[in-house]
Amino acid sequence: MDQSDIDQSIVVTGISTSKSEINLVKNTALQKCQLCGVSLSLDSNLNEANLKQLSTTYCQDDLDTVFGGNMDPEMELSISPIGTGFNNDTERSTNTNFDEDIDLSSKNFEPIFKKSIPPRNFYLCPTTITIVDSASNNQSTINNDQTVDWHSRISSITALFDMISSTTNIDHPLCEECADRVVNELDTQCKIVDQEQKDYQALIKRLNSQVPSDEEINELEKELALLEAEEKELQGQLEQAEKEESDFIEIKNKLLDEETNLVNQEQTFLLEYSNLKRQLVKMEENYESLENQHRNAKFHFDRLRSVNVLNAAFHIWHSGSFGTINYFRLGCMPDDKVEWDEINAGLGQANLLLYCLAKKIKLEFQRFRLVPYGSFSYIQVIENNPSYSNFKIGDECNMYEVKGKKYFLIPDKKFDKGMMAFLDCIKQLEDKIRTKDKQFCLPYKINSDKLEDKNSSYSVKFTSNSYEHWTKALKFMLTNLKWSLAWVTSQKNNASN
Signal sequence: where (predicted)? Predict the structure, then answer.
């Protein structure tokens, strides 16, 4: 209840307005229990004499301070006769055991400081007291003269309760049940404190009984000195180890720097290696390509080297009764007359072949000089010879005829002289070859203008000769050229091998 709710009066419900009831109000302090809040009635034995007797237990200054309302917090602490040795937050245990080692410094013996006392749960009215009858709802007022006697009494009681509350941990007044409960709790705390005191005394005795002797102290001092010396030695070793550690750390940092440099160099070298490897692969590919080209070129070279140019350029063979050179037929048969254009071309090829063979073996013909000129080839006379009286220097002996379709009916002496000179040149080639190879011999012997075959001979002249004999003589002439060509080719192959 707040002070503003009182309206400077005390309201009491359920009380009659008789004189006895007014006396009851005078003898009753409007107090409440500070724990449970139950309204309290003062004992009738609490009179003025008893109040004065209780007041003598405290000094007069304290009473004046309390009753005057001038007590500060420091004085409030100084007049506290009761206090526990432990903080409110400290838990007490009835099973205290000191068999184990206890650190006495861990105990905090701090006093409990009282908090400010809350206001009493009663209210005084300096002027009037209003009595309310619950039955009749009538109010009666007690005059100031009637309340003067018990006003001082209530003030004394209130001051006494405040002083008691300030000297203990418990606020007063209390009801009987709460007081009993508080007393029981205080008894329990006292027992706990007594038990702790006994435990502490036992611990102190035990510690006093365990005090070492002088000999033990000397041994411990010696051991301590040894330990200190060992500590100094270990301290020195520790400093040395720390110095070595710093040196090792410095070396490690240097090695890490070197490792970084080596890693960078490795990366650079790997990059260069990759570039060189790529170039090597390209070079190997180029090398393999060149090797393939070389093998291909060598294959073609060997194949071409095995091929004789003269054999490839001058193919001498036969076609029935005719001898052929590069597929040009030489001769004429009654039933198969060959055109002079074909014969002239074949004789031109024969002239060129003999000219090439002579150059291969470095032969210079006597009396005659070959002039290969295709289908109009001829032989020129370069000196006189008694054996060939009808040949004069400067004569050109033709190896071709231009007669038209009826040329076989009219003979030409220049053509016969050219054929005789051609046989003489073949004879000179044979003689030159025999100087190098005595075993060499042409299959058909040459005698003037004839080629001999066992018991028969055939002339190369066209005049006064039959078609068959003239054709056979030209065939024998090509055979002798083929043999000469084979010998020259074999000599070239032997030289190259």
Answer: none
Please list the residues that pair with 411 across neighbouring strands: none
Closest CA to 123 of 286, 237, 1: 1
Q: What share of the chain is helix, strand, coil (3-state, %, to 5)?
A: 55, 10, 35
3-state class of 196 per DSSP? Answer: helix
The number of residues making up the chain comes to 497
Q: Find out whether 158 and 122 touch, Cβ atoms under 8 Å.
A: yes
Q: Using one digit for the tens of pLDDT, what is the confidence trace for 301-336?
A: 888 877 778 888 899 999 989 999 999 999 989 888
What is the C-alpha end-to-end distance of the chain, expressed in Å?
A: 146
Q: Indicate whether 241 pLDDT > 80.
A: yes
CATH of domain 311-496: 1.10.418.40
Q: Which two tokens stand for residue 172?
A: 């007063």
Question: 493 is written with which tokens?
Answer: 């192959």
Cis peptide before 372 (omega within 30 of 0): no
CB 149 within 8 A of CB 30: no
Contact (CB, 8 A) for 431 and 451: no
| Pick from 385, 350, 386, 351: nearest CA to 366 | 385
Sign of CA dihedral 432, 434, 440, 443: positive
* Angle at which helices 19-26 and 144-166 cross, to 10°: 30
Domain spans, the chain: 3-209, 237-306, 311-496
Per-residue pLDDT, averaged over 195-210, amounts to 89
Q: Report the candidate in 130, 146, 183, 115 with the shortest Cα–Cα distance to residue 27.
A: 146
Least confident of 74-88, 262-276, 344-358, 478-492: 74-88
Between CA 34 and CA 44 the distance in angstroms is: 21
**Cα–Cα distance between 340 and 402 in angstroms, integer?**
7
How many Å apart are CA 98 and CA 80, to the nearest integer? Answer: 32
Angle of CA points 121, 126, 127, to nearest 5°: 130
CB-CB neighbours of 342 under 10 Å: 16
Residue 180: which of 32, 79, 81, 33 has the closest Cα?
Answer: 33
**Cβ(154)–Cβ(208) under 8 Å?**
no
Q: Tell me the three state secondary structure of residue 419.
A: helix
Strand order from edge to edge, sheet including 378-381: 368-371, 378-381, 396-398
Q: Would you state the pLDDT for residue 18?
A: 44
* Full DSSP string of 357-380: HHHHTT---SSEEEE--GGG-EEE
C-alpha radius of gyration, the chain, whole number:
81
Query: For position 265, what pLDDT does the model report?
Result: 94
Q: How many Å apart are CA 297 and CA 401, to the nearest integer? A: 46
Q: Tell me the mean pLDDT in the region 385-410.
A: 73
